[in-house]
Amino acid sequence: MPVIATHDLRKHYGEVKAVDGIDLSISEGEIFGLLGPNGAGKTTTLHMLATLQRPTSGSAVVAGFDTVKQPLKVRQRVGMVFQEPTLDSTLTGRENLDLHGRLYGVKGKERPGRIAELLKLVDLEGRADDFVKHYSGGMKRRLEIARGIMHHPEILFLDEPTLGLDPQTREHIWAYIEKMVAEQHTTIILTTHYMDEADRLCDRIGIIDHGKIIALDTPENLCASLGGDVVKLRMANPTTKPFEAMKFVKAAEIKGNEVLLTVEDSSSHLAEILQRSDGVQHVELHTPTLNDVFLKFTGREMREESGEGGFLADYQASQRGH
Amino acid sequence: MGEFAAVQAIWLREFKVFTREKSRVISSMASPLIWMVLFGVGLNGRVDIATPPGIDYTAFIFPGVLVMSILFGSIFYGLYIVWDRKLDFLKEVLAAPVSRPSIFLGKVLGGTTDSLVQAALLLTVGALVLKLINPVFTGISPVGALLALPIVLLVAMSIASLGLGIGTLFDSFEGFQVIVSFLAFPLFFLSGALYPLEGLPAFLTVLTRLNPLTYAVDLLRTLLLPGYVAQISPALDVGVLVVWTVIMLGFGTVMFQRMK
Ligand SMILES: Nc1ncnc2c1ncn2[C@@H]1O[C@H](COP(=O)(O)OP(=O)(O)OP(=O)(O)O)[C@@H](O)[C@H]1O
Ligand SMILES: [Mg+2]
To answer: Is the pTM of this model over 0.90?
Structure first.
């Protein structure tokens, strides 16, 4: 039994089809990533699942309850970390958590202990009694994450959870997310623009654009779907001739003084490729990443840029042009 | 009950915010005192209204000024919800497993508590000021002041509901001036806060009788000013205020349920 199941879920704002027919099935203990460019419909999807927005049509069952028919039942079982700040800045960090606990029915006896535990987790013990308006951006984000998990939700929605956090804190939060899943079988849906985050955490990834899921699989399979690694050869006289007969070369292309090859299992075949080609001055090997997958499906880069991405980006852009 | 705990949580939050915004408390005290001293004293003895012996004009308008401060305080408290929504803080509350009526009730109770504290302070300070200005004034009796609090409660509750309900319709502060000009000021000036109800032109008589705050001002005068003769029967005053408050609570609840 999936803990989240949507059927042709849609949300239209006048002409804008923010979410345009999404079918999802997510099982218990899964970490599911929603990746997509700005305005793709990620936040809208999460909001509908958390009963904060009413679908235009279609339906969603979350934790066993229909989001439209029994919203309060759903809300008791889910946690939400919003994309934009939603803390009460006139209260202290501790008071924000206390308010949340009361709203979600965490018992008075358990609240102080749970609050202390969470403050420790996000490293805010020392600042717990300062007003939130005096917190830095990263401190606020950490407090929001702590708040989202305070009532032990069965399902946790994280909308760009680690935006603006330093590497150490991100690592901390990731570790805790993994622990929650391992120990409490919490199901997690997160949106992110960070490749490393998606890679590290997600069991499956859905790529969404213009309100539609356009690819859905494990990170490994998504990367594999690109057809293999890319081998870049700089040659004196670039030619694709020698590679045409090779079965493991899926595509070959000349670009300036370089030849770009899409190669299955490149590590075992690199030697043969080099043997058969003349005048190779420089070789580069690139294994596809989620960024490349993202680029292929949406035509855009993920937020975190690496040097290599640029090379493959050009390559794939030209492939699409064919 | 989860809903009860939630009402309590929101109530507590509002009260904390109130006690932390010292400038709000101070200004809510300052403006009624300015009215009493600068407006009331200025007109003392110059306006020819039949007040009972011992009640000068300043004392006469004191209950009206009290209602004014609750009126403006509560309406702004309600409209403040626009700010909460703008800052997205309200999202956290609206996402909780709590029904909208409970959220609304928590908010109303928070605002009402703020008003009661303000009213208690104002009654104390006001009584001293009145005595200073006019030594002949018999003074506000402690019983009268205590009985005034439930009336303050009804006014605060109804106006906070009205403000919250209207606040759900706005997503910015533009338009606020319109509400102040076309709602708060008429409610104040048509309540008989500054003049007696008898001997008014017919249209003003009708308008003042349609204004629920008229009944609050009249009742508060009866309770606070020894020797003042009620213009409307206290039973009718209480009845009108209770019905009005129930209607406003209903209005606010419906508006909260419709709020996106
Ligand atoms: N309340 C609204 N009224 C009108 N249009 C809206 C509303 N909320 C969202 N939209 C539109 O719906 C689309 C999807 O928005 P959404 O916030 O879900 O995107 P997103 O994938 O979360 O983007 P981002 O990465 O920028 O957070 C956008 O075109 C947006 O303009
Ligand atoms: Mg978003």
So the answer is: no
